[in-house]
Amino acid sequence: MAQQQTSRRRPGTPGAFSRWMQRTMNARMNRKVRRGRGQMMGMDVLILNTVGSRSGQPRETPVAWFADDADGGRLIVASGGGSRHPDWYVNLMAHPDRATIELPGRPPLPVAPHRLDGADRERAWERIAAAQPRIAKYQSKSDREYPVIRLSPR
């Protein structure tokens, strides 16, 4: 009688482990930001607080940011691994009036998100790419243009 082989895969839906791992890593980074250490891979990090586009539940995502000369705001890039918009971007655009950010050691700050287009995006992208050439390299390998969002204090 042949032995039945057992699977070494984790139970659950496909991708459940990677989603769990992403949530765990995000929670770890959020704790670091709240303790005043907001750096990841040489980039400044903030916590972007959004509301789920379908669930309406609060979401917290660590996101790299870049200084914006225009109004003291911050620039963020929705790279999402190159192939699609990240969930935080979809949530942010669905409920822009409910967005806040947390900077290391500071309370949440309400922000107004604005997706940059045309010359505004190009100027912002040049600053971002100069500060972090790795992001420009990722963009060059993607078929879609990464959205650049300005977060202005409300």
From TrEMBL:
InterPro entries: F420H2_quin_Rdtase, Split_barrel_FMN-bd. It catalyses: oxidized coenzyme F420-(gamma-L-Glu)(n) + a quinol + H(+) = reduced coenzyme F420-(gamma-L-Glu)(n) + a quinone. This is Nitroreductase family deazaflavin-dependent oxidoreductase. One of its GO terms (cellular component) is plasma membrane. Belongs to the F420H(2)-dependent quinone reductase family. SUPFAM superfamilies: FMN-binding split barrel (SSF50475). One of its GO terms (molecular function) is oxidoreductase activity. It comes from Spongiactinospora rosea.
